[in-house]
Amino acid sequence: MGKRTPDEHLTKYVIDYYGGLMTRAEWLAYRAFLAEGKIQQGYSPEPLEDLQTNDPDALSLMSAGVDSFRRRVRERILRDHPDKVLLNYCPKCGGLATTPKARQCCWCFHDWHAREGGPRD
Ligand SMILES: [Zn+2]
Fold it and tell me: Ligand 1 centre and the CA of 119: distance in Å?
């Protein structure tokens, strides 16, 4: 798997760390895409049946494909919950860190641990 673009990274970050802010239909669609991905990897579909959905709202969210779905969920979460989502940007290059609590940049490798607890720089 190649390195993600900053845009793909933002999508993964929001969905991985703030997926709890998904709506019910988004969550159903998300689970159904997970099941679909596993089936494509060769998993048997039967145990994954309860991840799949007939919910019309979820199906309509799924109609444009997984990448478009993930980007839409990201945009909606960022729009509806600006107070809950911490976008942890690197103080040096402005890239988004790997996790909300990371103290090291995954783009330029700048490390800002030393800033905690004092004005040292
Ligand atoms: Zn950086």
Answer: 19
Q: How far is the CA of 96 from the centre of ligand 1 (A)?
A: 8
Cα of 103 from ligand 1 centre, angstroms: 10
pLDDT tens sequence across 42-79: 999 999 999 999 999 999 999 999 999 999 999 999 99
- Taking the centre of ligand 1 as the mean of its atom positions, its distance from the CA of residue 21, in whole angstroms, is 27
109 Cα–ligand 1 center, Å: 6
- At 104 the three-state DSSP class reads strand
- Is 105 in contact with 15 (CB distance < 8 Å)? no
* Contact by Cβ (8 Å): 107, 47: no
User: How far is 53 from 59, CA to CA, in rounded Å?
Assistant: 7
**pLDDT at 29 > cutoff 90:** yes
- Please give the Cα distance from 21 to 112 (Å, whole number): 28
What pLDDT band is residue 4 in, cutting at 50, 70 and 90? confident
